[in-house]
Amino acid sequence: MAKIWKRFSVVFIVLAIVVCLLFLAWRFESRSYRKSFDVETSARTPETLRVASYNIKLLNEGEGLANITEELQDMEIDILCLQEVDQNALRSGNFDQVEAIASALDFPYYHFYQTMFVFPGHYGLAILSKYPITEVISREIPQEIFTEPRILAEAIIQLGEKEVHVYNTHFTWNQQQVQMNEVNFVHDNLAKESVILMGDFNSFWNEKQEQYLGLQQLNNEENRLITFMGFASPDNIFIDDAFEVISMQMQATTFSDHAMVYADLKVK
How far apart are CA 221 and CA 192, in angstroms? Predict the structure, then answer.
């Protein structure tokens, strides 16, 4: 009996070590990087730009590709930021969701930013664009070890002669101090000009994040769009003074618990 317990203890210890090593590998997997691309750019800067942010909830475990295609195909979106995206994950049909959406909606430029390993693929954010993406940057937002990893995704997009910094993020849910740390990190890592920041900010506790970010908040108290479960407005778009708001609207969804927010901007 003693030998059996000894063997059991050894097996348990080995398994515990393996689990800890896998957790550490998952938690501290590199999420910070910078990549540049050689692309042909147009000489014409557009006068207006339609940008959108959408938490797609894994395309309803991969079943919502036809829905998002039907809903967005005629909306003429120029830049689209996505949250809660899977890439080749078993739980959502084991396919590259960003590539599939880009192909279906004719976005020639796109990038997936991973935040977590999800067997056998990854989960994260994405930025899709009709205009050339010349550089992508992923910055890991500092978090405690047992919290979900979060990142600030950036794409430098060439609008003719104008270079625009587009950011995408997904904040922690329902933890005010953690969210304030995330807001401060984003503020400290934004470019100095030509900034568009989009994402799911989980801002149930504070609808005035613009005062901390130093940007104009488009989903605000004067023009509040209820984008989550009929009561909250976590999905938002922020801009600096390189752009002027023409309109800010939302698009209902048939597969996600979030609505999409989108804005028409005048490029100054």
Answer: 26
Which residue is listed with tokens 């909306």? 75
Using DSSP bridges, classify how beta strands 33-36 and 133-141 pair: parallel, antiparallel or unpaired. Answer: antiparallel
* Stated pTM of the model: 0.90
Residue 69 gets the label, from left (phi > 0), alpha (psi -120 to 50) or beta, of: alpha
Cis peptide before 46 (omega within 30 of 0): no
CB 249 within 8 A of CB 262: yes
Q: What angle do CA 240, 241, 242 make, to 5 degrees?
A: 95
CB 93 within 8 A of CB 61: yes
Q: Three-state SS for 139?
A: strand
Report pLDDT digits (tens) over 33-62. 999 998 887 778 999 999 999 999 999 988
Segments in the chain forming alpha helices (H) = 2-27, 57-62, 65-72, 97-105, 176-188, 210-213
Nearest to 227 by CA among 253, 255, 254: 253
With tokens 């997009």, the residue in question is 157
Angle formed at CA 198 by CA 129 and CA 58, multiple of 5 degrees: 75
According to DSSP, the β-strands at 195-200 and 162-170 are: parallel
Residue-wise pLDDT for 81-117, tens only, equals 999 999 999 999 999 999 999 999 999 999 999 999 9
Whether 113 and 86 have beta carbons less than 8 Å apart is answered as: no
Count Cβ atoms within 10 A of the Cβ of residue 111 and give its class: 0-12 exposed, 13-18 middle, 19 or more buried: buried
Query: What is residue 91's DSSP assignment?
Result: G
**Site of tokens 């778009």:** 237
